[in-house]
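FW: tagging you since you asked about this chain on Friday. Here's the raw sequence from the shared folder, copied in full. Didn't touch anything.
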Amino acid sequence: MHFLKQYWFGIFIGLLIFWFLVFFMIVAFAPHHDSQNRGFSRCTGELADKIQDCEQNRFFCTLGAVLSGAGCDVNVIADGLGMWLRGEQPRPWSNYYFTPDLSAPEEDEYLDGQEKYYQAHPDMRETMRRLKAMKGDI
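HL: got it, structure written out here
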């Protein structure tokens, strides 16, 4: 008991750091790109949109976006645990550790003019190579 009284703060901080590292590893190794918007891919998209919308006071706006993104990630993990406890999925991590679907979007999902652009510029690598060459000439 004397050990706990003397080192309670270090144990508490150590446990916080341990849980942060577990959370970080879960999010880091999960897929973040999925055409069905499953798992952490929804949070990644929301985070990118919020950071892109930051115009004034960028430091605090970006910090707020990152913190809300971490909250979204925690909700994804909690949802997976809840679905596992209710028997809706076989493992707690099934909703965020999966094989992502990276198939191309259907033709009706293209934005206005996007399909015409890709038809007019079929070889993006060649276009980028020419632009880099032009940059060197200028």
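FW: The radius of gyration is 22 Å.
HL: agreed, and The mean pLDDT is 83.
FW: great, closing this out.
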